[in-house]
């Protein structure tokens, strides 16, 4: 299961489409709070793809909350960002993907952390 | 003076008792005229200075009545006063300096100051000591004091002039000083515009009656017939008594009782900066003509400073605003343009993958390709709108957008706009409070729809997921107000105006990552401005929701 966290429906849609086309299972959340709620009650995903800029709870806050909970701390996280400045090292992300990205980057990450899809 | 008189009286008394010094010599050395008279008003003593002041030989006065040194008109009042004093001893004029006229030996008069004291003679009788001082000298002193007073007023004004780095305030100070300290009946200043060669009336103080003749609000320096223009032309001050010249409105001069004028160019370096003028109800006093030039020089220097500071400030603020706009654009565009760009690129790649893929289910495949194409179209549309907004705000600010006014019903337009809100969930959160009948006015339908659409979209965007948005229309004396109120994140008071600037977004909006280029309100403000209306935001603060109000004139077909 891959968790995609982004507030932009069109973006969530295209990521989900390419992943499901390749046979991955995908679940989505439209902000950090929704994602945290999902992570607390569901089996742990093999990868979380997290946008930084979101209302309510943003990507930084979500990632810091995940790092604070032992059950979530080691979930691989790929940060998706239009944010060009700033140091993201404190987020201990597996990857940082700059917008606009290629779908191949997403697929490569999914294969690395979740294996080849179904 | 009075003290000196008393000391002198004491000295005379002591000399009578002690007789140590030659008091005659002492008194002769005094610059003041000293006279002693008895109770019959007869002069019993006069010092040497009497000659200098009154032209009398001192010894010739001894034995004469005080009438000898008084103009005839004062004889009677003197007799009455002196008689009362001699009989009752009441010394009403003693101890205070008295200004009066004295008669010289040659019959001419002079102004003197008289101090009186009573002394006793050796036999215990009473004598009156009078000390007379020439007031000619005093008048000179007073003139110096007056000059000093004017210079002090100018110095006080200087402090204000230097701190007021604004041309209008500098000129206001000048007219105030002319009226308050120089006693001008009317003071005015003009600023000179080198580009147009015009003098523009800038400040005015004192009487404000109508002056006939060509208008003096703006004057061409080369051609205007007024003295003010002539002073600007020649850069030469005009300070004079009598205003009989035809350049002055004679009826006005007579009505206001004006006697003199001082008109000075305000020149700094080689630059003519303006002209100041004062009209006075008394003949030009020397102290005014001597000091008013200093005031003009000081004013010109301060005006020049204000002008330079103004130019610098303007250049700096234009440059700073441009840099701030660029920074805001980069910050906002990096996020807001990259996201739709990612959607477009992602869907384009997805489409390519799907078209290349072989499928066992052609229908499902066809559907997937259609979905990708549709999303690609939507992403491109979103980018197009953003680019359109960018161009729009620039075109609107440049004033190159033509409005197409037609008679509209605002109520119908709002219904249509609300129906056009893309998502049904958002649409269901809008509460309308509209007049029952049509609200007619001459507006640009497309542009007004754009404004209302922007405001509704913002209200929905910044409100909680199920938060209501209220839209009302009220009519008031030919104007119409559209008010859109949300229950959203609110606006801090210092952001109420700033959010209308292009690319500017309230800190709480960007911190919480609400999407937006920060152009919707900028575009809306430009449109409403061109429609001749106003738009503003109201909010009790962050978290308190906000209202946006658009106030429109009903307008006319043109």
Q: How does this structure look, described?
A:
- The complex is a heterodimer of chains A (118) and B (558).
- Chain A has five helices and five strands; from the N terminus they run E-H-E-H-E-H-H-E-E-H.
- Chain A is of the alpha/beta class.
- Helices cover 47% and strands 22% of the residues of chain B.
- In chain B, helix 6 (135-163) packs antiparallel against helix 7 (167-180), helix 7 (167-180) packs antiparallel against helix 10 and helix 15 (445-461) packs antiparallel against helix 17.
- Chain B has helices spanning 2-18, 23-28, 49-54, 58-61, 75-88, 135-163, 167-180, 227-234, 250-256, 286-336, 338-356, 362-398, 410-419, 424-428, 445-461, 507-511, 520-530; strands at residues 33-37, 43-46, 98-103, 109-120, 126-134, 186-193, 198-206, 218-220, 238-241, 260-268, 271-280, 405-409, 430-433, 440-444, 469-476, 479-486, 534-538, 546-553.
- By secondary structure, chain B is an alpha+beta fold.
- The A-B interface holds A 7-8, 10-11, 13-15, 17-18, 21, 52-56, 58, 82-84, 99-104 and B 334-335, 338-347, 349-350, 353-354, 357, 368, 371-372, 375, 378-379, 382, 512-515.
């Amino acid at each position: 299961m891959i968790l995609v966290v982004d507030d932009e429906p069109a973006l969530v849609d295209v990521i989900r489409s390419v992943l499901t086309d390749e046979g991955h299972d995908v679940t989505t959340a439209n902000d950090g709070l929704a994602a945290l709620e999902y992570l607390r009650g569901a089996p742990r995903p093999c990868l979380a793809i997290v946008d930084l800029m979101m209302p309510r709870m943003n990507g930084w806050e979500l990632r810091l909350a995940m790092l604070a909970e032992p059950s979530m701390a080691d979930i691989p996280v790929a940060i998706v960002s239009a944010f060009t400045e700033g140091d993201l090292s404190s987020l201990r992300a597996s990857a940082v993907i700059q917008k606009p990205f290629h779908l191949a980057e997403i697929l490569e990450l999914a294969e690395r952390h979740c294996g080849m899809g179904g | 003076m009075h003290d000196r008189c008393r000391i002198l009286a004491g000295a005379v008394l002591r000399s009578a008792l002690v007789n140590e010094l030659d008091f005659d010599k002492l008194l002769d050395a005094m610059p003041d005229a000293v006279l002693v008279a008895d109770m019959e008003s007869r002069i019993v003593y006069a010092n040497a200075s009497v000659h200098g002041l009154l032209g009398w030989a001192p010894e010739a006065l001894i034995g004469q009545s005080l009438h000898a040194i008084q103009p005839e008109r004062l004889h009677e009042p003197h007799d009455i006063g002196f008689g009362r004093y001699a009989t009752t001893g009441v010394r009403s004029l003693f101890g205070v300096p008295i200004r009066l006229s004295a008669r010289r030996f040659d019959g001419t008069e002079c102004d003197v100051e008289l101090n009186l004291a009573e002394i006793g003679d050796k036999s215990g009788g009473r004598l009156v000591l009078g000390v007379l001082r020439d007031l000619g000298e005093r008048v000179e002193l007073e003139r110096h004091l007056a000059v000093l007073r004017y210079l002090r007023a100018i110095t006080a004004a200087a402090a204000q002039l230097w701190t007021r780095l604004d041309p209008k305030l500098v000129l206001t100070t000048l007219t105030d000083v002319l009226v308050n300290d120089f006693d001008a009946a009317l003071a005015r200043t003009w600023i000179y515009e080198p580009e147009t060669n015009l003098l523009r009336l800038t400040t005015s103080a004192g009487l404000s009656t109508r002056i006939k003749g060509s208008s003096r609000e703006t004057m061409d320096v080369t051609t205007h017939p007024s003295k003010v223009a002539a002073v600007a032309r020649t850069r030469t001050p005009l300070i004079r008594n009598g205003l009989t010249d035809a350049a002055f409105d004679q009826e006005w001069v007579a009505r206001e009782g004006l006697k003199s004028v001082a008109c000075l160019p305000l020149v700094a370096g080689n630059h003519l900066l303006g002209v100041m003028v004062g009209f006075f109800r008394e003949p030009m006093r020397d102290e005014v003509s001597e000091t008013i030039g200093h005031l003009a020089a000081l004013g010109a220097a301060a005006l020049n400073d204000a002008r330079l500071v103004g130019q610098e400030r303007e250049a700096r603020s234009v440059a700073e605003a441009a840099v701030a706009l660029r920074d805001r654009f980069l910050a906002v565009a990096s996020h807001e343009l990259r996201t739709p760009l990612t959607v477009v690129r992602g869907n384009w790649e997805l489409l390519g993958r799907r078209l290349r893929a072989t499928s066992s289910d052609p229908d499902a495949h066809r559907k997937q390709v259609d979905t990708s194409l549709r999303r690609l179209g939507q992403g491109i549309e979103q980018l197009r709108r953003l680019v359109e907004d960018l161009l729009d705000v620039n075109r609107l600010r440049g004033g190159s957008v033509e409005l197409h006014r037609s008679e509209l019903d605002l109520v119908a337009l709002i219904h249509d706009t609300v129906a056009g809100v893309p998502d049904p969930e958002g649409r269901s959160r809008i509460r309308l409070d509209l007049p029952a009948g049509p609200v007619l006015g001459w507006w640009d339908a497309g542009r007004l729809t754009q404004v209302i659409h922007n405001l509704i979209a913002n209200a929905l965007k910044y409100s909680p997921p199920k938060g209501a948005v209220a839209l009302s229309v009220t009519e008031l004396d030919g104007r119409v107000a559209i008010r859109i109120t949300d229950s959203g994140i609110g606006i801090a008071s210092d952001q109420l105006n700033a959010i209308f600037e292009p690319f500017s977004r309230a800190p709480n909006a960007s911190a919480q990552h609400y999407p937006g280029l920060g152009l919707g309100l900028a575009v809306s403000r430009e449109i409403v401005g061109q429609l001749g209306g106003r738009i503003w935001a109201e909010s009790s603060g962050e978290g308190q929701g906000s209202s946006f109000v658009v106030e429109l004139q009903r307008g006319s077909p043109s």
